[in-house]
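WARN no homologs supplied; continuing
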Amino acid sequence: MLVASAVPLLDLLSAASLLLAVVAVLFGLWYPAVANSLEIESNMPLTWEDGRRPRERLHDVKVTRAIPLAAAAGIVALIFLPETIQIVARSVLDFFRHGVFAFGDYDAVATSLIVVVVFGAVLALYLLALVIRLSDLERRLDQLPKVG
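OK structure emitted
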């Protein structure tokens, strides 16, 4: 197993940024489908039969777009989380030891890695919230009354 500290920080930042960029592009491409699926809520069908088609579309979007995106963003954040925690821990210790003089050791690359990981985590949490909303809407569509 590769130890994170053996990899140059700039390489970690490049890898994290590239992976997050891929997730962001997919998010940009797939988000309209997710948003359209959530619009079913504003025009909720009255019967199970009327809701069958929207429920199928919603399930497809949830399984093929929202869940994979949430997982990908979460994985990107988790991959680089150990190094990020080490950077934050070292920075906090340095600040407690040297006070404001610790800013003399400021590392823009390390800070950028933290920002990329935080952005990935926030994106993953947002996407997880969307998956929960889609699942709730799917459940409500399943519970519509059946006619006949």
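Residues 9-142 form one domain.
OK
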